């Protein structure tokens, strides 16, 4: 339920009610909106406890949250959440682009990619060091050596680094070298991993499972938020359907739908979503037109020789041309595609 404080509630009253919520055995999340502060009281047996909160000092009303996800819901927080990591910004009118190779392969490959995507207007560098591959015989990633190369590329360009973490044991290691922890589609319902990144100081990019419903996706985000990490971005990366002309089916209606249900920023991955480089530019534009708060795009110096996902990766020139078009679409829908200002 939500404890809605009066517009002029004092800090003491907010602190008092936060304590009251905790005394009832519920978790308290304080959310400060432009208009007023609300306290989300999360836990079981809420119904019996709402009455005792209603009469608290500075309380306007106590209302239930009807969605199964609570902290992620728009009911709790009507204003959109904006996530800022270094110069990367997504949400509330700002569009941020993360780009780079599927996998980190070498210093030359990741550093040249970082310079190229920065020049084209990206503010974050993607690159997998721990790779979740369908086959155990496929390239599994450079692991910690790959993380070190990502950190080096960040040092050279100032781009924020987003990279996947696959297991709870590796959260600390990946967090040491990166700015955004990516939870891959295959791990969207790995609940212990979600809790572990929920306890990390890093922002999280949560990818939708290929067979997950939007409600399951939001409940996965709720696991992270419920641990106290508010910096979660949702990434639609395509779902599995009967259709086979694309690698996955990229449902762009998910963007406005998610915006209706949650305040969290929505990122689109047109690379995995289509599985074909030639489809990526147009779907990037479509994503921004549909209201996406950001994109994550696979870009490789020589897609033909990529260790993974080369067939869906743009080369530098294709990425640059796509970004110029994306910027125009963002402007047309009253948003700003945020680029690097320095560094
Ligand atoms: C990736 O980003 O390279 C990746 C493996 O993505 P997903 O988890 O969406 O398949
Ligand atoms: Mn990939």
Structure write-up:
- The chain is an alpha/beta fold and 343 residues long.
- The chain folds into two domains: 62 residues, Alpha-Beta Plaits; 255 residues, TIM Barrel.
- The chain contains eleven helices and 15 strands.
- An eight-stranded parallel barrel has the order 7-8-9-10-11-12-13-14, surrounded by seven helices. The protein has a four-stranded antiparallel beta sheet with strand order 2-3-1-4, with helices on one face. The chain has a two-stranded antiparallel ribbon with strand order 5-6.
- Helix 5 links the parallel strand 9 and strand 10.
- Helix 10 packs parallel to helix 11.
- The longest helix has 17 residues.
- The protein is elongated, with a radius of gyration of 21 Å.
- The N and C termini lie far apart (44 Å).
- The mean pLDDT is 96.
- The protein binds phosphoenolpyruvate (PEP) and manganese (II) ion (MN).
- Phosphoenolpyruvate binds next to loops.
Could you tell me the number of beta strands?
A: 15
Element pattern in H and E: EHEEHEEEEHEHEHEHEHEHEHHEHE
Number of domains: 2
Low-confidence residue ranges: none
- Sheet of most strands: 8 strands, parallel, barrel
Approximately what portion of the residues adopt beta-strand conformation? 15-25%
In CATH, the homologous superfamily of the largest domain goes by the name Aldolase class I
Which hetero ligands occur in this complex? phosphoenolpyruvate, manganese (II) ion
Can you name the CATH architecture of the largest domain?
A: Alpha-Beta Barrel
| CATH topology category name of the largest domain | TIM Barrel
Mean pLDDT: 96
């Amino acid at each position: 339920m939500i404890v809605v404080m009066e517009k002029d509630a004092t800090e003491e009253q907010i602190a008092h009610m936060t304590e009251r919520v905790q005394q009832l055995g519920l978790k308290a999340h304080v959310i400060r909106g432009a208009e007023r502060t609300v306290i989300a009281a999360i836990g079981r047996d809420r119904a019996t406890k709402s009455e005792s909160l209603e009469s608290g000092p500075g309380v306007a009303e106590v209302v239930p949250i009807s969605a199964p996800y609570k902290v992620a819901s728009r009911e709790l927080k009507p204003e959109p959440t904006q996530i800022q990591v270094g110069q990367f910004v997504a949400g509330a009118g700002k569009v941020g682009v993360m780009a780079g190779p599927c996998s980190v392969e070498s210093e030359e490959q990741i550093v040249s990619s970082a310079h190229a995507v920065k020049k084209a207007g990206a503010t974050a560098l993607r690159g997998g060091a721990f790779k979740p591959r369908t086959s155990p015989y496929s390239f599994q990633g450079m692991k910690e050596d790959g993380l070190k190369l990502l950190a080096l590329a960040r040092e050279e360009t100032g781009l924020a680094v987003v990279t996947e973490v696959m297991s709870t044991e590796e959260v600390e290691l990946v967090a040491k070298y990166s700015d955004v922890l990516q939870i891959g589609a295959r791990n969207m319902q790995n609940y212990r991993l979600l809790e572990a990144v929920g306890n990390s100081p890093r922002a999280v990019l949560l990818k939708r499972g290929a067979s997950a419903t939007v409600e399951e996706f939001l409940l996965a985000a709720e696991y992270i938020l419920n641990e106290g990490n508010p910096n979660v971005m949702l990434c639609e990366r395509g779902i599995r359907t009967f259709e086979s002309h694309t690698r996955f089916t990229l449902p762009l209606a998910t963007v406005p739908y998610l915006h209706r249900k949650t305040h969290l920023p929505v990122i689109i991955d047109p690379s995995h979503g289509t599985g074909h480089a030639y489809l990526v530019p147009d779907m990037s534009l479509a994503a921004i037109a549909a209201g996406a708060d950001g994109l994550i795009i696979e870009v490789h110096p020589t897609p033909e020789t990529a260790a993974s996902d080369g067939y869906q990766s743009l080369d530098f020139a294709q990425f640059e041309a796509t970004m110029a078009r994306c910027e125009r679409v963002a402007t047309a829908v009253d948003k700003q595609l945020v680029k690097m200002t320095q560094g």
